[in-house]
Amino acid sequence: MEFFCTISYAQTNLSIPSETKERAGSEMSDRHAHIQEIFNSIQGEGIFIGLRQVFLRFCGCNLNCSYCDTPETQIADSGRCRVWQGCEPEEGFEKPTELSENTIKTYKKTVDNTNRLKFSKGFLTLENPLGVDIVADVIKEFWSPATKHVSLTGGEPLLQSRFIRRLAEVIDLPLYLETNSTLPDAASDVAGLIDVAACDIKLEESGMEDDCDLLRDKTLRTIEIFNNNNCSVFVKIIILPQTTSATLISAIKSIAEINPEIPLVLQPITPPINQSERPSPKNITEMMDAASRYLRDVRIIPQTHRLLGVL
């Protein structure tokens, strides 16, 4: 049984050019991007769990996984971007997130009227697409003494690889990339700029039914690209109720062939996300043992930010 899900553009509502399927970002601007939201919160997944990060959530994704917890980001051209400094905007919050006069001035240069800057329920919304300068200014304002990374997430951030390259030129901050690992050409474009690469492997039960071999090759190439560059890499696999050790074994062997030192996170799905059941503790521990025969660092880590009630 193949361990990867597949690319299925027909199941999404994306308006991404066909050539983007092969080379992410080829038609995307290096100075503007559609952003879903920018905020400062706590990393709730993976081996850097518990660290503060400024999250930059890009719009658009080339996959349509059944368990996606941010389905709104599958739309490539979201109208407005929400920004706030706290972990979660509060209902009825009277004083909205404030940006400095310099940041507001930068933003106004990118739009043709001031009405495009709006406040609502404790957070500010900016009209997309956002210029790289305003994104950089917001990130710098939201940075705090405890903050460790800028988390590039989505959606699939590598669809905006050219914008990421430009952003890296104007902010001197550590970049943490969360990727579905299916866009190796885009990964090559930014690998030298990324400090941490959190690479997903999608299993067959993720809900796709196209070319498994194609996705397998692209995923392994992407992981290898980041492993060969000067960045910290770990792999994350979502564990569904129907996932078994037999489902995992091909993926585990492939990671080990690249580098057996790459940490692996087995992340049990967090209901409710189109799922009513959790993987059993027995199955999860059996999968951990199976993976540990090939990899030296295997961890079971659920989504903790949901437990804390933060984004």
Question: How would you characterize the overall build of this protein?
Answer:
With 311 residues, this protein is an alpha/beta fold. The chain has one domain (9-308): Aldolase class I (TIM Barrel, Alpha-Beta Barrel). Helix content is 26%, strand content 21%. It contains 8 helices and 13 strands. It has helices spanning 101-108, 132-142, 161-170, 184-190, 212-227, 245-258, 281-292, 305-308, and strands spanning 32-33, 35-42, 52-58, 80-84, 117-120, 123-127, 130-131, 147-153, 175-179, 196-200, 232-239, 264-268, 298-300. The strands form 2 sheets. Strands 5-6-4-2-3-8-9-10-11-12-13 form an 11-stranded mixed sheet, covered by helices on one side. Strand 12 (264-268), helix 7 (281-292) and strand 13 (298-300) form a beta-alpha-beta unit. Helix 1 (101-108) runs antiparallel to helix 2 (132-142), helix 3 runs parallel beside helix 4 and helix 6 (245-258) runs parallel beside helix 7 (281-292). Mean pLDDT is 80; it is low at 1-27 and 89-96.
